[in-house]
Amino acid sequence: MDAIEERKVYRLVLTGGPCGGKTTGQSRLCTFFENLGWKVFRVPETATILLSGGIKFADLVAEEVYKFQENLLRTMIQIENTYFELGRTSNKNCLIICDRGFMDASAYISKEKWDRMMRSNNWNPVELRDNRYNQIIHMVSAANGAEQFYATEEHSCRSEGVTLARELDYKAASAWIGHPYFDVIDNSTDFENKVNRMIECVCQKLGIDIGDRLSITSRKVKFLVSGPMPPDTAFPAFQDFEVVHHYLQCAGPRVQARLRKRGQNGRWSYIHTIRRPQQHGQSIEVRTQLSHRDYLNMLTQQDDAHFTIYKKRRCFLVNNQYFQMDIYKDPSHPRCKGLILLETYTSLTGDKLKAILPKFLNIVKEVTGQPDYSMFNLSLREDWNNTKKFCYSLHDQDDADVKTNGHSQKMINGKA
User: Fold this and answer.
1) Number of neighbouring beta carbons within 10 Å of residue 189
2) What distance in Å separates the CA atoms of residue 175 and residue 412, rounded to the nearest whole number?
């Protein structure tokens, strides 16, 4: 494979509430990746460009506001496409940072008008949210968890200003619920570490080994949830997706490769994921967005040792934390029947972690890192007691070798 084929073009949306660190974060992210030898483009915020021309919302009637938002989105698409095309022709790896993205506009318009706009322009969320951008990062407003640092350019905001900022922050985050790689960077650390966590988050998704250049604070945590599911009305705003996973044949025993099809209303996005162990004792995931054609071609490499996994994935925000809940569906192995797993990324532990979990779910226990709840193992066709394919750890093969193969199928659905 030549150098051009190996180049990466990564489309990132950096969004957030007022005084969340978006501007500083964008500058730091740009410097970090330029130091790695990447080409970095920064797509300006379309709303700022248009509003700088003297437009005042207070002077517009309702239909004028609607047409302004519609033309803003048309302009945004064209501006972004200009940078995306430059990225495709760049002779370097290219990071394209969008100052807000398409879905941000939905936070400032009613659902009825938004749906009307989507229909009249033949737009759909899967294409313009999931397929258009590789990753979304929301920088939480200082008004939500770091109030003492929340200020305008000239003076500290009054309490009602803080309240409005929190509302805007929530709306901005809610607009992106459902994107497959949506990360919320909260104010649980000081600002310096907040920015480092944001940069680290991008590096993790790209599979870049950052070594000790940044302090790694967040990790993925997983919880077993017991049914029955509460009614939809118990949830905050959410997005549901159909998800299908296929494991692929791999050359090495410690490498895992899979395809994911994820969609709503017959519209799909496709991802190829490869998991490999690192020398430093942690596994790394490299994800590549695929076209439908590439997806079908790679599907011919499906590994017959694994069932296809079918899930409903529900995405939502609770306590300023982004959650994904996977509800396993038939047809699948009987070990998956009734299985519900909840995941999030966080730097919190212990009681602080428990405090942010959704109270309306019956969470049985944390199962982070437990091989019984690995999708790779759950999809295995063979009984766990009789297979040699069961994966205890990607990066600790020696430990797996000394364990007995008589693995018991325990606590999969909260039952012994």
Assistant:
1) 17
2) 34
- In degrees, rounded to 5, the angle at the alpha carbon of residue 138 between the alpha carbons of residues 123 and 77 is 30
Is the CB of residue 347 less than 8 Å from the CB of residue 368? no
Q: pLDDT tens digits, residue range 311-360?
A: 999 988 887 788 999 999 988 888 889 999 999 888 788 898 899 899 99
Task: Give the chain's radius of gyration (CA, Å).
Answer: 22
Cβ contact 257:272 at 8 Å: yes
In this prediction, residue 213 carries a pLDDT of 53
Round to whole Å and give the CA distance between 283 and 257: 13
Task: Give tens-digit pLDDT for 74-91.
Answer: 999 999 999 999 999 999
- For 90-218, strand residue ranges (E) read 94-99, 135-139, 182-185
What CA–CA distances, in Å, run from 349 to 158, 218, 239, 326? 33, 10, 27, 22
For residue 102, give both structure tokens.
Answer: 């398409």
Q: Decide: 133 and 12 in contact? Cβ < 8 Å.
A: yes
Q: Distance between CA atoms of 261 and 264, rounded to whole angstroms?
A: 10
Q: Sort 35 into a burial class: Cβ within 10 Å, 0-12 / 13-18 / 19+.
A: exposed
- Burial of 154 per CB tally in 10 Å (0-12, 13-18, 19+): exposed
What one-character DSSP code corresponds to residue 379?
Answer: T
Beta-carbon contacts of 52 under 8 Å, excluding residues fewer than 6 positions away, are none
Q: Which is nearest to 313 in space by CA: 323, 298, 301?
A: 323
| 321-329: strand order across its sheet | 283-290, 267-277, 256-264, 238-247, 309-318, 321-329, 340-346, 219-226, 362-366
Rounded to 5°, the CA angle 69-44-22 comes to: 100
Residue showing tokens 């990790």: 219
Q: How far apart are CA 338 and CA 414, in angstroms?
A: 10
